[in-house]
Design brief:
Number of helices: 12
Structural class: mainly alpha
Radius of gyration: 19 Å
Shape: globular
Helix content: over 70%
Largest sheet: none
Oligomer: single chain
Strand content: under 5%
Order of helices and strands: HHHHHHHHHHHH
Number of strands: 0
Distance between the termini: 41 Å
């Protein structure tokens, strides 16, 4: 009989990178769905429907992955911390920043989140950053900032201290990646991590909603579209957690940060909403070149 050849398995680094980029595409599609949803419902109510949908779907799937005893374990606290930070805290910073300095500059500055994620991962998790990873991250972040700033419009003057607000949004996202990674080292269950984080976010958003005395709008199409956002975000969150469970934060964070590039590409290719000019095409090419450097570190 012929000897059987050993099966070749994909290197975990490449697998985590592939999943991280896939999650970025899913988040990009969610951005376009949210654009449609906002024609029918405001951001606050929509975000509540969005997060609630993610949490409900994950709880419905819980019998297939959840070990109930693990909900009392220490790693769950890290997942809950991630849910406290994103979207609750990061969304607050983001909205405040958009109001003060505008959406384009906010997107550009907030895209530095991989830098914060990497610094925290190096000092807290002891991860190692090589020259290729540093160079790739710098290219990715710089290109995303360029794309964001190309869409800027003429805006009012704003105080210099306002830059700290989008930087706060970037910092919270970097903290969230690391909190999930720490939790996954003790409880390697990406689905549980996503469920706990989504549930924590939902409880916070519900509390704020009830305290403000607001009520949900009457049934309209916004519920469907924001519900679809919730499904896509839940899928992307699970993918992000799987990538973090397989790879380092210093690799996953900058790859997931490519969402603006995929949003632009999918908007141009499928939704016919974007006009992509040569400088932007070059910037997108640089982003993917940076991704190659990060993956092949």
């Amino acid at each position: 009989s012929r000897p059987t050849r050993p099966r070749r398995h994909m290197d975990p680094v490449y697998l985590s990178a592939l999943i991280a980029l896939s999650a970025s595409v899913v988040f990009a599609l969610s951005n376009h769905v949210q654009h449609i949803a906002l024609d029918h419902m405001d951001v606050r109510n929509g975000t509540l429907v969005n997060v609630a949908t993610s949490a409900v779907i994950l709880w419905l799937l819980a019998p297939f992955f959840l070990v109930p005893q693990t909900l009392l374990s220490e790693p769950v606290l890290w997942f809950a911390l991630a849910g406290l930070i994103v979207p609750s805290l990061s969304m607050t910073f983001h909205s405040w920043s958009v109001r003060l300095i505008g959406p384009a500059l906010t997107a550009g500055i907030a895209s530095t989140s991989p830098v914060f994620a990497m610094v925290i991962a190096v000092f807290v998790l002891g991860e190692i950053v090589g020259a290729r990873t540093l160079a790739g991250t710098a290219i990715v972040v710089g290109s995303i900032v360029f794309i964001a700033l190309r869409s800027r419009g003429a805006g009012a003057a704003w105080p210099a201290w306002a830059v700290a607000i989008p930087l706060g949004a970037a910092l919270t996202r970097g903290l969230s990646h690391n909190a999930i990674k720490i939790g996954l080292t003790g409880l390697p269950s990406p689905m549980t991590a996503a469920m706990v984080a989504a549930t924590t976010s939902l409880l916070i958003l519900l509390s704020v909603h009830l305290a403000s005395g607001r009520s949900l709008p009457a049934p309209n199409r916004g519920y469907f579209w924001f519900g679809l956002c919730g499904f896509l975000n839940g899928l992307g969150l699970v993918g992000l957690n799987v990538a973090l469970s397989l790879g380092d934060v210093v690799v996953v964070a900058p790859l997931v940060a490519t969402t603006p590039a995929f949003t632009l590409l999918t908007g141009w290719l499928f939704f016919r909403r974007e006009v992509v000019r040569l400088p932007t095409i070059i910037a997108i090419g640089c982003i993917f070149a940076g991704c190659v450097l990060i993956i092949t570190r």
